[in-house]
Amino acid sequence: NSLADPMLLMAFVDGRARALIDFDLLHAAPRVDEVVNALLWWADFNDPADRDPLMRAVDTPRRCGLFVEEYGLSRAERSVLVETAQVRRERSWHLMRHNAETLGGGWARMWHDGVGDVIVRGQRYLDTQADAMNRAIGA
């Protein structure tokens, strides 16, 4: 992951981050899906070995807790956040493989460069962090 993403815009007021505008996959979606998408960048669900060097030491559960608290997710939304992240990770692997096989080009290059393995390691990382993340978000 890169910390610079042209599809995200962070708004600051008096030096404090106050809003995150996410243009990636622009469409109407449940709030919990939007939070999971943002947390992919801000809490980094990848295995630390696969992260940008600046994100390797990030405490994923703590960041999830802070983000969810500020975002104001309901108890019901918090209860499905980690599972939603896990399901999206699984779906991502299948989608990447499908796109690599059917569309080729950049999809195939990413797949052959090991993105599927990165996703699998991220799935394992999420599995090991699930309990801590659920505690941190108050699920």
Compute the CA-based radius of gyration.
Answer: 15 Å
Helix-strand sequence: EEHHHHH
How many β-strand runs?
2
- Biggest beta sheet summary: 2 strands, antiparallel
Number of helices: 5
Oligomer: single chain
Helix content: 55-70%
Helices and strands: which structural class?
mainly alpha
- Uncertain runs are 1-5
List the strand order in the largest sheet. 1-2
Can you tell me the overall shape?
Answer: globular
Provide the β-strand percentage band. Answer: 5-15%
Average pLDDT, to the nearest integer?
A: 87
Query: What separation lies between the terminal Cα atoms?
Result: 26 Å
Question: What are the salient characteristics of this protein?
Answer:
mainly alpha; two-stranded antiparallel ribbon; single chain; 139 residues; globular
Structural topology:
Blueprint: E1 8-13, E2 16-22, H1 31-42, H2 60-71, H3 75-102, H4 105-112, H5 115-137
Antiparallel strand pairs: 1-2
Helix pairs in contact: 1-3, 2-5, 3-4, 3-5
What does the model show?
Helix content is 60%, strand content 9%. The two termini are 26 Å apart. Helix 3 (75-102) packs across helix 4 and helix 3 (75-102) packs antiparallel against helix 5. With 139 residues, the protein is mainly alpha-helical. The protein is built from 5 helices and 2 strands, in the order ββααααα. Strands 1-2 form a two-stranded antiparallel sheet.
Please provide a brief summary of the model.
With 139 residues, the protein is mainly alpha-helical. The chain contains five helices and two strands, in the order E-E-H-H-H-H-H. It has a two-stranded antiparallel sheet with strand order 1-2.
